[in-house]
Amino acid sequence: MANPSKVDLRVAAESFPLAQVFRISRGARTHADVVTVTLTDGDAKGQAVRGWGECVPYPRYGESVDSVIAQIEAMRGPLSKGLTRQELQEAMPNGAARNAVDNALWDLEAKRTGTPVWTLAGLDAPRPVVTCYTLSLDAPEKMAAQAREHAARPIFKLKLTGDGDLDRVRAIHEAVPTARLVVDANEAWTIDHYVDYAGQLGALGVEMIEQPLPAGQDEALRGIERPLPVCADESCHDRASLDDLAGKYDRINIKLDKTGGLTEALALRDAARARGFGIMVGCMVGSSLAMAPGVLVAQGAEVVDLDGPLLFAKDREPGLVFEGSTLYPPAPELWG
User: Fold this and answer.
1) Which candidate, 106, 171, 94, 113, places its Cα nearest to that of 139?
2) Is 159 one of the annotated active-site residues of the chain?
3) Span 41-58, pLDDT tens digits
4) Whole-model pTM over 0.85
5) Residue 95 gets which letter from DSSP?
6) Catalytic annotation, pick one of 157, 159, 248, 258
7) Which residues fall within 8 angstroms of residue 39, CB to CB, at 6 or more apart?
């Protein structure tokens, strides 16, 4: 990427109402609070072009809207002097702030050159993917009612919490018996929960268990029988995470807010594949702008969970196109 003459940075906090309360083991929310980065520069004809990206600050990783905005504002000078994506990887740590800037730089280059991001990245043109639809944590009967409301969807991700989870899964399986299921404990299980549940979940339509134990306390998974694939989420951020995951996990969940953008996400995917890990591509609760780069990473993934916009009361316009749970690649008007 050639250094631009001068890139103007704009950072904004935005809040999107959710269609209903979104609840996981560590809390609930009614809005998605995001940070949007917009970079403006000129193209070869001297016309102003804009690239943008979105991130979702996550308190679990010590992030807030204010802290992420401060991190991004610290890059104003370097960006105005032509900071490249490659330099960005060293200038900022992985996380939400770098994610928004990295994806905005990708989009800016695509708009400046008239070349799709996937071409710039050396990838094939993306194809539609089928995403999970997330069922928020609740009582078994309420989660089953959520599932019945969306019975046409082929795959659900179930938010779990520990005690009573087998009842939740059983109720959902009975409500949508042909649906594929993925369960996500968000670090809330103990090893006793895992041992008790793991052998029973397959008969209830479950195909994968995501992050059962707390990150940093997951050594108990090493070498233990895993009747279903176990996927690292909070335990996996970028390529530096991979060394500690072997023997404990079968798959990794790549989220761009963890990797710090598309650049590292693509590198993590390739490195993980080379080491024998399966791939899940997930998201925080963000808008179509946050999901768009993830569609490129999700090509060929075993599990795709890019349903953030489906949980919104109102998404960005233009947003991504969904047909049921089939998600289409972003149009250039949105990103890339």
Assistant:
1) 171
2) yes
3) 965 566 889 999 999 999
4) yes
5) S
6) 159
7) 7, 8, 9, 10, 50, 51, 52, 79, 101, 104, 105, 107, 108
